[in-house]
């Protein structure tokens, strides 16, 4: 299966070279030459990776990356830049980029990084959404169907994990580590209690359930079951 990628680059010769090489490697590219065009495509489509130049007209790459993270886009971003100072890289990571590639670069290295990024989702998204359930990581606000859900710190950790993994099943061990990362987990019954309380908050007031137990495997958060 080919990888779907977005390239946002204002240098047409470089963009043509990258697109042609990537297509030979089984990577299909959408292309935008301005920051605003790139932002529109990133919000409208589901890509495996986004290649984003820093210096772009209308919106620079840092602004585009920050904007898509605020909108909950968790597509991995590879920032392309001629700047290689620590300050520049830190600014990129603060904006939500996942990796950096300094120009000029080898096309084979670019493809290798894209393939690696395409295997995962970014952890920098500031908004997680599953169906009508939304978790805003910036404001620490949870809502479903527009109604605020009040969560305990433990409930928040558990819900964030389930939403990041959705629609995949999350096992007991992974849930336990997320809630008690220092290995101080109490008895297994405590996790059951936390899941029960989370269901009372997320599912009980509404007409359909999002949290589903998968027998012998774990728990999954799914909108369409």
Walk me through the topology.
Blueprint: E1 3-8, H1 12-24, E2 27-32, H2 35-44, E3 49-53, H3 61-70, E4 77-81, H4 86-95, E5 99-102, H5 107-117, E6 127-130, E7 133-136, E8 141-144, E9 147-149, H6 153-165, H7 172-179, H8 188-202, E10 211-214, E11 218-221
Helix pairs in contact: 2-3, 3-4, 6-8
What's the short story on this structure?
The chain has 225 residues and is α/β, with parallel strands linked by helices.
Give an overview of the whole structure.
The protein is of the alpha/beta class and 225 residues long. It folds into two domains: 3-117, Response regulator (Rossmann fold); 127-221, Winged helix-like DNA-binding domain superfamily/Winged helix DNA-binding domain (Arc Repressor Mutant, subunit A), CATH 1.10.10. It has eight helices and eleven strands. It has helices at residues 12-24, 35-44, 61-70, 86-95, 107-117, 153-165, 172-179, 188-202, and strands at 3-8, 27-32, 49-53, 77-81, 99-102, 127-130, 133-136, 141-144, 147-149, 211-214, 218-221. The protein has a five-stranded parallel sheet, with helices on both faces. Strands 6-7-8-9 form a four-stranded antiparallel sheet, with helices on one face. Strands 10-11 form a two-stranded antiparallel sheet. α3 links the parallel β3 (49-53) and β4. The radius of gyration is 20 Å and the shape is elongated. The mean pLDDT is 88.
């Amino acid at each position: 299966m080919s990888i779907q990628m977005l390239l946002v680059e204002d240098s047409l010769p470089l963009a043509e070279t990258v697109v042609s090489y990537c297509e030979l490697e089984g990577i299909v590219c959408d292309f935008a030459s301005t920051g605003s065009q790139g932002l529109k495509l990133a919000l409208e489509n589901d890509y495996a990776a986004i290649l984003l130049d820093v210096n772009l007209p209308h919106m620079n790459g840092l602004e585009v990356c920050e904007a898509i993270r605020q909108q909950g886009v968790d597509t991995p971003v590879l920032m392309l830049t001629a700047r290689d100072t620590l300050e520049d890289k830190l600014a990129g990571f603060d904006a939500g980029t996942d990796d950096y590639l300094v120009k000029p670069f080898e096309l084979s290295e670019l493809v290798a990084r894209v393939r690696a990024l395409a295997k995962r989702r970014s952890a920098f998204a500031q908004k997680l959404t599953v169906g009508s359930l939304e978790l805003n990581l910036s404001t620490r606000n949870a809502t479903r169907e527009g109604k605020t859900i009040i969560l305990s710190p433990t409930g928040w950790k558990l819900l964030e994990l389930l939403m990041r993994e959705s629609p995949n099943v999350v096992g007991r061990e992974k849930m336990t580590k997320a809630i008690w990362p220092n290995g101080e987990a109490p008895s297994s019954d405590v996790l059951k209690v936390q899941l029960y309380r989370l269901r009372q908050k997320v599912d009980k007031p509404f007409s359909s359930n999002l949290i589903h137990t998968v027998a012998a495997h774990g728990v999954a958060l799914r909108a369409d079951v």
